[in-house]
Amino acid sequence: MQKDVRKFGISDKRGRAKTNEDPYVPEAGLKEPAICDNCNALYRNRRWQMDAEGAAAESGNPDVQRVTCPACQKIAERYAEGVVTLRGGYLWDHEEEIRNILRNEENRAMAKNPLQRIMRMEREGDELIIETTEEKLAEHLGRALHSAHQGELSVTWSKEHSLCRVNWERLQ
Ligand SMILES: [Zn+2]
User: Rounded to two decimals, what is the model's pTM?
Assistant: First the structure.
């Protein structure tokens, strides 16, 4: 009898989710469904998604976990994985247009993966600094800006610190 119980335990998905040994599940240990208290992102089927209807439907579920998603944690701790620095006179002549491009690209990226976000976009002196929660989004923003407005683009990756630095400049 005891043997049967153990067997069931091994094949039971919820039992497996409690171990941290599955390398294919980066969120191992996080039970489903989970909802981020801060941004309402929903964790289901082993991925985070922006799904307002799904989150509303799950919020009545007594088993739902109330958590802070990885993106909101990084924003709270100001832990940027991507830093984009824009400069040059052309930037300030087209500031609104450029800010819109960046926000649109963020929205597109978030539709695919809600953990990719702009955590800060501020002017500092003659530079516009954009910090992102994920490295890939920083590179993506730089490439989108470059293809829309040309200029000079450089992308540098630092593997040790898991940081992507993007510089873009256009004088006129
Ligand atoms: Zn969140």
Answer: 0.79
